[in-house]
Structures are given as C-alpha cells and as structure tokens.
Amino acid sequence: MKTAFALLALTLAVPAGARTITVATGADAQEKLQEALLDAKPGDTVQIAAGRFELTDGLSLDVDHVTVRGAGQGRTVLSFRNQQGAGEGLLVTSDDVVLRDFAVEDAKGDGIKSKAANRIVYRALTVRWTGGPKATNGAYGIYPVESRDVLIDGVTVEGASDAGIYVGQCENIVVRDSTARMNVAGIEIENSRHADVHGNLATHNTGGILIFDLPNLPRGNGGDVRVFANRVIDNDTPNFAPPGNIVASVRRGTGVLVMANDTVWVRGNTLSGNATANVMIVSYRNSFTDTKYNPFPRHVQVSGNTHGRSGFEPQLPGGPQLLAAFGGTLPAVLWDGAGADLGLRVADAKVLSLGMAQGAAESTARPVPATLDAPAMPERAAVVLPPAMELAAK
Fold this sequence. Notes:
This protein is mainly beta. It is built from four helices and 32 strands. The strands form two sheets. The protein has a 20-stranded parallel sheet that branches. The protein starts with a helix and ends with a helix. The model is unreliable at 1-12 (pLDDT under 50).
C-alpha cells in the first residue's frame, strides 16, 4: 500500500509530456549543457552522457521538477579546472530537483550548491578537488542552504577547504551512506533542525562530523540532530582552511564536534584514530551581538558508541603536559567546561573538562576529569522525507 501511494505521489509530481534532453561531450559541450538546463521544463530529465566535460564557466538550474543525471560517478565528469569565474560548479535555485550519477571536479568555488531549493535530492555524486587539500580549493563540496527536505545519499567529497558535505539553515534533512575525506570538515550541519546523519564514513579530514550554530545568520536555533551508525575514523589532515574561516579553528584529530547546538544524539558510531578527541562538546567562544543566540551546547547525549584510540596527540595548548598528566592518552570526550547544567550526558566514555567559562581565553583552561550525567532523553523518530524523494534516490 505504501509503495502504491509513493508511486502515485511521484506520478502526480511529474507533469505529462516529460522529455529527456541528452548532452554529449564535444567542443560545444559548455553551451549545450547550459542551454539544456535553461530550456528544461518541469518533468524533464537532462541526461549528461558518459565522458569528460571540460567546462569554462559555472552552470545553473532554475526550473522546478527537473532531474540532472549522468552515466555514473566515475563515467560522467564535469571538470571546472579551466573555470573563468569564482562561482559554483553547479547552482540550483528551484524546487523538486534530483541530481545524480555524475562527478564535479576542481570548481573554483563550491562544487554543487542549492539555495532555497526545497525537496532536493543529491544522489550518487562525487565532488573533488584533484590537487589535494589546499586553501585555494572551493569551500564546500555539496552545499544545500535555506531549504526544506534535503536528501544527501551516497555521495563522495574530497578536498573542500571548509566542509565536504555542508547543510546550512535547512529543515528536515537526511545525510546517509556518504563518504567525506580530506576536507577540513567532513560533514557539517549548521543552523539547521531535524537532521539524521547516519551510515557515513568521515575519514582523513581535519574534523569528521560537526554540528553547530553560529550567530548573526538569518536562521538560528539549530538542533534536533541524530548522529548515528557512522564511522568517524583517522581524521588526521592538518587544517587547511583559509585564515578567518570559522572552521580554521577546528583541531586536527577531531571526531564529532557539537558546538552551541540544542538536542543532539551521538550514538552507535565507531570513533577511532582521532588524535585530539573522538567527541568534543563546546560552547561558541567568540564575541557576538545576536541577542537571540545561545552559545552553549544543550541536551547533548553521547551513548552506545565504540571508542577506539583517541586523544593521543591533542591539538590543544599544553598538549604535551596534558598527555604527561593523563598517562599518554586523554579521555575520548572533551568538554570545554561551559554549560554544566544544560542536559549534557556522556554514558560511554570518560570525559575531560577543560574548565573554561564560555568566551574565556584558552589560557584560563584548568583541565580536570568530569562526569556529565544528565538524564537520558528519549530519542525522537526518524526524519521522514516525501515519498517522491525516496523513489528518486533508488
């Protein structure tokens, strides 16, 4: 019955007379591909043939109910190494769009960005910067922002100078079965609510999975995030973010970071090989003027994770002295010490408090073992996306 309903929903969502517009490689591929995206009508599919497309400018789509599909992540490659501008490889500003089965390389700006694009599906995509980790790489690989109903499924991102998979100011989000490696932040959920992040691999980034809120953005009060059944391992790449970027402060060897967010479950993950900590729970430390902003982490629950080796080379002031004091390895969970009575619970590992008040300088740190034992919160139900989105990801 559910399948029949989903098929009906998909049928009603796609207008009659839908076309497939095929674009092949060649000297005029830039013009033909952008022309196809401009000429597409609701219900159409822009089919990008197998091959390598050498593009000199970014692409854009502003038509609802369009599918952009390649022949496979390893078979259809959109290369922007000769891109003249500094914008995205592909920008989407329309609803009910499906992007799948192709790769984007070496965009001057972000790899694939969608803005105010509701019910968007990113499926089986690769975004990479082929020159390795560099500050001149684009900031974000997969980048939905200001949207409702976002599905990121089976994507791979490498080399982003901010976040490989970034979801910002969105509502109702699923990020699953994806790989983020050699980015500054592997997966980042920022100023967003109702997110499920599961089944992913975050490895060889500076930090694996980051859940946080920032002030002075159009949408704040992020939270209600479940981070579960992920592998967050060996995040060991030195931070290569441009100076001044907020993630430039992420410490090499951070597994999962929760900052200034409300109601977060971190459970059932495999966490190992993260030199600073497997989990960090911290407040926002910079000054701010946003009167609605809450800089503290609230109702963060860490339980049922498998903790492997961590805390063996902490990127913290006085790191060598800390190691000596704690026998060569720090506890798997670090807490900055702010927000003690705000529902913080760690049930599966030892905790080291850095003893710092919110906004205080790092020189004020007074590290001591700590216990975070707020009552357990009932976990909310899974995020449910519209049936048509799930069908599009099959």
